[in-house]
Amino acid sequence: MAVVLAFERPVVELVSRVRELRELANEDPRFGAELRRLEDKAAVLAREVFAGLTPMQKVQLSRHPSRPYSQDYIERLFEDFEELCGDRRFAEDPAIIAGLGRYHGRSVAIVGHRKGRSTKENLLYNFGMPNPEGYRKAIRIYELAERFGLPIFTFVDTSGAYPGIGAEERGQSEAIGASIEAMSRATVPIISTVIGEGGSGGALALGVANRVLVLEFSYYSVISPEGCAAILWKNGDLAPEAAARLKITAPNLLELGIVDSIVDEPPGGAHQDHDAAAKQLDAALYKELKELSALSPEELRADRYDRFRKLGAFVA
Q1: How many CA atoms lie within 13 A of 187 on its CB side?
Q2: How far apart are CA 255 and CA 44, in angstroms?
Q3: Residue 30 pLDDT class (50, 70, 90 cuts)
Q4: Do residues 211 and 118 lie in contact, with contact meaning Cβ atoms separated by under 8 Å?
């Protein structure tokens, strides 16, 4: 791995040894017992190290450049994926990946934020920050899914919608609002998963779902810790303090009812094993889709309405 965070180094070294031993075990079964012992040790060490992570360290993990992105999950979870491009109004926005595919034999619609691995890809995908045409493309898919009765899966991974002048001129806030409206009125099952960063309205435009899942080391917030610190204290160095106060990590989100469940990641985080991360997410998605499929179209819309009406409610 090109990037290793300081706090994850002991785990990364052990996971690397597990990976090497797994290759040997594939060639010689005699290494099987040693592989299982080392896998158990790696899992225990990862849990011990990561149990003490600060909120800001979890934010760092959510941004890890080796973390699986939407396109990585789409490749592993869906068959016959056909990408659909353009918003039919202005342009194609590569920061949103969207299309149709098959999930466990069932036709579905898929929308996700898209980030890149290289500098060239990051520039092409605008670092995962969509323009208005990206959200209007997403609306196209939502409406297509509604027309043909297709469940919708969304994958949230953005620091926020692009705040550039051009985006504002083309109606960024209106596009996000229209996306939220389209998801709100849909009468098909919608399952959203926060797979990395969940930043502001740019994330919510893909997050108005019947069920919202979050990966173990992802975050979901109205603003980034750095932005919050800059606004409140005029000091970006206080981002760790802001991360702690914002309550944006997976356990906080579950406790507050912002998300419905947490999907565990492989030892060391999803970036250590993309296949294992996809397998664990697959089990969670299939369970939720099976439950939601028992609801009628109107029940699905009412379920989504009730879910979001409860957010922020309290008893005096």
Answers
A1: 7
A2: 25
A3: low
A4: no
In this structure, are 158 and 73 located in the same domain?
yes
Residue 5: HSE in the Cβ half-sphere, 13 Å Cα cutoff = 22
Closest to 94 in 3D by CA, of 153, 137, 63: 137
Look at the chain and report how many structural domains it folds into. Answer: 2
Residues forming beta bridges with residue 96, ordered by sequence position: 113
Range of the domain at 48: 9-52
In order of 26, 94, 175, 309, the CA distances from 181 in angstroms are 51, 22, 10, 14
The one-letter amino acid at 133:
E
pLDDT for 11 beyond 80: no
Task: Match 């996700």 to its residue by tokens.
Answer: 112
Task: Confirm whether 3 is domain-assigned.
Answer: no
Spatial distance between the Cα atoms of 217 and 237, rounded to a whole number of angstroms: 22
Query: pTM for the full model?
Result: 0.90
In a domain, 1, yes or no: no
Q: Are 294 and 191 in a shared domain?
A: yes
Q: Please write the tens of the pLDDT for every residue from 277-315.
A: 999 999 999 999 999 999 999 999 999 999 999 887 766
Give 138-181 as a 3 state SS string: HHHHHHHHHHHCCCEEEEEEECCCCCCHHHHHCCHHHHHHHHHH
User: What is the spatial distance between Cα 288 and Cα 183, in angstroms, rounded to a whole number?
Assistant: 17
